Amino acid sequence: MNRPAFSILAGYAIVVLCGCATHELASAPASPDSPWQPSQTASGEIQPGRAARHGLLMPPGFTLPSNSQIQVRPPDTAITAQAGHAYGLAELIDIAQSANPDTRRAWDTARDAALAVGITKSTYLPRLTATVVGGYNHTRNNGDNPSISNGGAAGDAFNGGVTSFNNLVGGVRNAGSGAGEIQTVGLEWLLFDFGKREAVLAAMRQGQIGANILFTAAHQKIIYGVTIAFYAHAAAASRVHWLEQALENARRVEDAAQARLKHGQGTVVDATQAGQATAQTELRLVQAQGDVENTYLELVNAMGISPRTRMQTENVSDRPLMLDDTRLSDAFVQQAVSRRADVLAAYASVKAAQSQVAAARSEFLPKIFVTGNVAYTTGRLALSSVPGVGSDSPPTLNLSSNALSSVILGGISVPIFDGGMRAAQLRQAQDRADSASATLQKTVDASVKQIVAAENALHTSLSAYSASGRLETATRTAFDAAYAAYRNGVGSIIQTSMAQNGLLDATLSHSDAYYAALIAAASLAFATGSLDQAPAEYAP
User: Fold this and answer.
1) What is the pTM (predicted TM-score) of this model?
2) For residue 111, what pLDDT is reported?
3) Which residues form a coiled coil (predicted)?
């Protein structure tokens, strides 16, 4: 190949190679204001690369294609099979702990932490490696004469002699080949490192403790989430129940207004106002029914089951509440903080960070090690060469060897200078330990705040429940009196409507305060780290 053609080919190759990286820009969105058109398989699964010019294409606009490989979970057959059964809170929590994906993720994280401890412990053991290397070699000379330069007359005579010899034999071709392999077994064993591996292992064990704590915390969060969602759904269902009763009262008032109008004792305005009150109650009922569906979806989502699963929940509207004004003692708060999952996990992080500081310090100390190697070598080489002066025939040289060797070495490695890298790593470990301590203190303070806030919320909700109960009793008496007076032609529709609305608001407030107290009790139990055993004085 001549030089110009080679240059053109080399330039073309360079251009192609340089364009490989930027060529992938074609698989990115074309512009910031145009939809992305991905490449798809026959099932709709998005795959790397640009969209094909034929086959499945993305619809116009910014709607992504449907991937048929992604399936929506079907309803839980074990739940739907028990039609008519009302699930209690304990049953729902038990289902959630098995079905919620968060528990599996936390379990996997805890297992990974345990494996990390095992990996760290393996550094105490020697490392054995086996290696086999083999190969084949072949060379061939096309017979071209070597160029030998030797100045003077002697050199000219020698060159002429070589030329005459090659002309006589017609040129000699050289060939050589060989094959061989090496089999080795190596040993590496770190005997002593002044506590680095011990410190790293301690840090990994603290990490495992933290992962196990967070596994428990994941279950606590699920229990708390299901509890809150269960009570929120029960509160929404209770609102529907009371609104249905309020709708019956509104219709009674409307029937009384129509009866008075029919007998000439009432007015059209009275009948219209009564009908308006009925319509307003119907609207509030429809909205409350929508809230029931939304809270039900929140409940099944907290459980981690399919949203398409339908079930009935237990009615807990008649649970007695204890209204004693008892406060948590400082000793109880101290005990509660010390068993919270987030505080325990933060404490484990502090211990792990302190161990990392010890590991960083050990990098300044020497290491004692031992290493060994056992090797077995086999080889075979055949070479045909140019004959020497005075030789009758070209000699053939055959080389073969089989060798077994072994070596074991022991030594000490002393770090001297690394540009300050170890000092910087030590400072980083110390900073992380200081940050972990600060995080622990902040977590403790936040825990105390959450406990006190939950306790106050519980007392407030219990007081509101008691006050709303008295208000409901008073408004019910007022409504009954206003309704009876209106039916007898004494009262007015305005007073009756006001009494009706007051009764409805008081009833709903009493119901909401009841479930708010249950939620507050659950929040206090979660804040104190005792969801499975709430304080006796707050047991709802």
Assistant:
1) 0.76
2) 93
3) none
